[in-house]
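Dock heme C; give full complex structure.
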Amino acid sequence: MKISQLIIAVCALLFALTAVSAQTPPSDATLTANPVFQKSCAKCHGKTAEGRHFGRPSLISEKTAATSADNLRNIIANGKGRMPKYASKLTSEEIDTLVQQIKAQQIKALNKK
Ligand code: HEC
Protein backbone atom coordinates (compact mmCIF):
# COMPACT_ATOMS: atom_id res chain seq x y z
CA MET A 1 0.00 0.00 0.00
CA LYS A 2 2.73 2.44 0.96
CA ILE A 3 4.77 1.72 -2.16
CA SER A 4 1.79 2.18 -4.45
CA GLN A 5 1.02 5.50 -2.75
CA LEU A 6 4.61 6.52 -3.32
CA ILE A 7 4.38 5.55 -6.97
CA ILE A 8 1.18 7.55 -7.36
CA ALA A 9 2.81 10.54 -5.67
CA VAL A 10 5.86 10.35 -7.94
CA CYS A 11 3.68 10.03 -11.03
CA ALA A 12 1.57 13.00 -9.97
CA LEU A 13 4.70 15.05 -9.39
CA LEU A 14 6.16 14.12 -12.78
CA PHE A 15 2.85 14.91 -14.43
CA ALA A 16 2.68 18.29 -12.69
CA LEU A 17 6.23 19.09 -13.75
CA THR A 18 5.64 18.26 -17.42
CA ALA A 19 2.37 20.22 -17.36
CA VAL A 20 4.18 23.26 -15.95
CA SER A 21 7.04 23.10 -18.43
CA ALA A 22 4.64 22.61 -21.34
CA GLN A 23 2.63 25.66 -20.31
CA THR A 24 5.49 27.99 -19.59
CA PRO A 25 5.84 30.32 -22.56
CA PRO A 26 9.38 30.73 -23.85
CA SER A 27 9.89 33.66 -21.50
CA ASP A 28 13.65 33.21 -21.29
CA ALA A 29 13.85 32.78 -25.05
CA THR A 30 15.20 35.88 -26.72
CA LEU A 31 13.84 37.53 -29.84
CA THR A 32 16.62 36.16 -32.01
CA ALA A 33 16.07 32.64 -30.61
CA ASN A 34 12.36 32.82 -31.48
CA PRO A 35 11.77 30.65 -34.59
CA VAL A 36 8.91 32.97 -35.61
CA PHE A 37 11.34 35.89 -35.72
CA GLN A 38 13.97 33.96 -37.69
CA LYS A 39 11.36 32.71 -40.15
CA SER A 40 9.29 35.87 -40.68
CA CYS A 41 11.32 38.88 -39.61
CA ALA A 42 15.05 38.14 -39.84
CA LYS A 43 15.14 38.51 -43.62
CA CYS A 44 14.48 42.22 -43.20
CA HIS A 45 15.46 43.07 -39.64
CA GLY A 46 18.54 40.83 -39.58
CA LYS A 47 19.32 37.65 -37.67
CA THR A 48 20.49 39.75 -34.72
CA ALA A 49 17.50 42.16 -35.04
CA GLU A 50 19.99 45.00 -35.49
CA GLY A 51 18.54 45.87 -38.84
CA ARG A 52 19.86 45.68 -42.36
CA HIS A 53 20.61 48.25 -45.00
CA PHE A 54 17.96 49.79 -47.27
CA GLY A 55 15.72 51.17 -44.59
CA ARG A 56 14.99 48.00 -42.66
CA PRO A 57 15.32 49.39 -39.17
CA SER A 58 17.03 47.90 -36.17
CA LEU A 59 14.59 46.63 -33.57
CA ILE A 60 17.12 47.41 -30.84
CA SER A 61 17.15 51.15 -31.48
CA GLU A 62 16.20 54.05 -29.25
CA LYS A 63 13.40 54.79 -31.70
CA THR A 64 11.92 51.34 -31.20
CA ALA A 65 12.55 51.59 -27.46
CA ALA A 66 10.50 54.79 -27.42
CA THR A 67 7.63 53.04 -29.20
CA SER A 68 5.00 51.67 -26.82
CA ALA A 69 4.18 47.97 -26.73
CA ASP A 70 0.73 48.80 -28.14
CA ASN A 71 2.24 50.60 -31.10
CA LEU A 72 4.73 47.80 -31.73
CA ARG A 73 1.87 45.30 -31.71
CA ASN A 74 -0.03 47.54 -34.11
CA ILE A 75 2.95 47.86 -36.51
CA ILE A 76 3.50 44.09 -36.53
CA ALA A 77 -0.20 43.30 -36.95
CA ASN A 78 -1.07 46.00 -39.50
CA GLY A 79 2.24 46.82 -41.12
CA LYS A 80 3.82 50.20 -41.73
CA GLY A 81 5.39 51.54 -44.90
CA ARG A 82 7.32 48.65 -46.42
CA MET A 83 6.85 46.55 -43.30
CA PRO A 84 4.31 43.81 -44.17
CA LYS A 85 1.33 43.13 -41.93
CA TYR A 86 1.25 39.93 -39.92
CA ALA A 87 -2.27 39.94 -38.43
CA SER A 88 -3.34 37.15 -40.78
CA LYS A 89 -0.01 35.27 -40.70
CA LEU A 90 0.69 35.04 -36.98
CA THR A 91 -1.54 34.38 -33.99
CA SER A 92 -2.04 37.21 -31.50
CA GLU A 93 -0.03 35.13 -28.99
CA GLU A 94 2.88 34.97 -31.43
CA ILE A 95 2.67 38.73 -31.99
CA ASP A 96 2.49 39.37 -28.22
CA THR A 97 5.56 37.20 -27.69
CA LEU A 98 7.43 39.14 -30.38
CA VAL A 99 6.46 42.45 -28.74
CA GLN A 100 7.63 41.24 -25.33
CA GLN A 101 10.87 39.94 -26.80
CA ILE A 102 11.50 43.19 -28.72
CA LYS A 103 10.99 45.10 -25.47
CA ALA A 104 13.32 42.71 -23.62
CA GLN A 105 16.01 43.11 -26.30
CA GLN A 106 15.82 46.87 -25.97
CA ILE A 107 16.22 46.76 -22.21
CA LYS A 108 19.33 44.62 -22.69
CA ALA A 109 20.69 46.92 -25.39
CA LEU A 110 20.07 50.06 -23.35
CA ASN A 111 21.70 48.50 -20.28
CA LYS A 112 24.84 47.86 -22.31
CA LYS A 113 25.43 51.60 -22.76
C1 HEC B 1 9.81 42.91 -46.02
C2 HEC B 1 10.69 43.35 -44.97
C3 HEC B 1 10.21 43.25 -43.52
C4 HEC B 1 9.79 42.13 -42.83
C5 HEC B 1 9.68 40.70 -43.36
C6 HEC B 1 9.51 42.56 -41.49
N1 HEC B 1 9.71 43.90 -41.37
FE1 HEC B 1 9.44 45.03 -39.67
N2 HEC B 1 9.86 46.72 -40.74
C7 HEC B 1 10.24 46.77 -42.08
C8 HEC B 1 10.39 48.16 -42.48
C9 HEC B 1 10.79 48.63 -43.86
C10 HEC B 1 10.06 48.94 -41.34
C11 HEC B 1 10.03 50.49 -41.24
C12 HEC B 1 8.61 50.95 -41.50
C13 HEC B 1 8.51 52.44 -41.46
O1 HEC B 1 8.84 53.03 -40.42
O2 HEC B 1 8.09 52.99 -42.47
C14 HEC B 1 9.75 48.01 -40.26
C15 HEC B 1 9.40 48.38 -38.96
C16 HEC B 1 9.18 47.51 -37.93
C17 HEC B 1 8.93 47.90 -36.56
C18 HEC B 1 8.86 49.32 -36.04
C19 HEC B 1 10.19 49.76 -35.59
C20 HEC B 1 10.15 51.18 -35.08
O3 HEC B 1 11.06 51.54 -34.32
O4 HEC B 1 9.22 51.92 -35.43
C21 HEC B 1 8.77 46.76 -35.84
C22 HEC B 1 8.49 46.63 -34.35
C23 HEC B 1 8.94 45.65 -36.74
N3 HEC B 1 9.19 46.14 -38.01
C24 HEC B 1 8.86 44.32 -36.37
C25 HEC B 1 8.85 43.26 -37.28
C26 HEC B 1 8.57 41.90 -36.90
C27 HEC B 1 8.31 41.42 -35.49
C28 HEC B 1 8.59 41.17 -38.06
C29 HEC B 1 8.29 39.68 -38.22
C30 HEC B 1 6.97 39.24 -37.79
C31 HEC B 1 8.93 42.07 -39.14
N4 HEC B 1 9.06 43.33 -38.63
C32 HEC B 1 9.08 41.70 -40.47
C33 HEC B 1 10.46 45.68 -42.90
C34 HEC B 1 10.13 44.37 -42.59
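Observed: The radius of gyration is 19 Å.
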